[in-house]
Amino acid sequence: MGGKQRHAGSVAVRLASPAMRQLTAIVLACLPFAGCVERTVSITSDPPGARVWMNDREVGTTPCIVGINDYGSYDVRIVKEGYAADWNGRSVDTPLWDAPGPDLVGEILPVDLRSRSEWHVTLIPLSKDEAALIERARAAKVEASKPPFTK
């Protein structure tokens, strides 16, 4: 067994090679200056002023910027009176620098990293015209037949 052992109470602390001790000291010295990662989604709509829900939680009114903790798929609903609701699955892709492995370096470095996705929705005005209603129903049927969470 290479290395010395010191006992602190009942816990044995193993001291590694000098290079490992130096690396540990550098990492610990940098921790107070470590950066952070900010993950956001910018949501806009045409017309603006629509209410936005992500995963059944109201997050704001367009235009809005929403902080997220995780990358992946979200159930997004955008609603404005007088317009057809937009209810789709949307996803936020993981940038390469925030993938498992490289993300450790990003968390330790004294820089602030930002990941921002942008979603834009054009809302369709509701019409009292029966032919337009039937056409919207056909379009909704086509949209509903698509696989979930497509971009």
Summarize it.
The chain is α+β, with helices and mostly antiparallel strands. The chain is built from three helices and nine strands, in the order E-E-H-E-E-E-E-E-E-H-E-H.
3D architecture notes:
23% of the residues lie in helices and 38% in strands. It is α+β, with helices and mostly antiparallel strands. The strands form 3 sheets. It has a 4-stranded antiparallel beta sheet with strand order 5-4-7-8, with no helix packed on it. A 3-stranded mixed beta sheet has the order 6-3-9, with no helix packed on it. The chain has a two-stranded antiparallel sheet with strand order 1-2. The termini are far apart. The mean pLDDT is 81.
Helix and strand layout, with pairings?
Layout: E1 4-8, E2 11-15, H1 18-30, E3 37-46, E4 51-54, E5 57-61, E6 64-67, E7 72-79, E8 86-92, H2 102-108, E9 113-122, H3 130-144
Parallel strand pairs: 3-9
Antiparallel strand pairs: 1-2, 3-6, 4-5, 4-7, 7-8
Overall pLDDT score: 81
Q: How does the major sheet shape up? A: 4 strands, antiparallel
Structural class: alpha+beta
Please tell me the total number of domains. 1
Q: Give the overall form.
A: elongated
**Strand and helix order:** EEHEEEEEEHEH
**What name does CATH use for the topology?**
Immunoglobulin-like
What is the top-level CATH class?
Mainly Beta
N→C terminal distance: 55 Å
Evaluate the radius of gyration.
25 Å
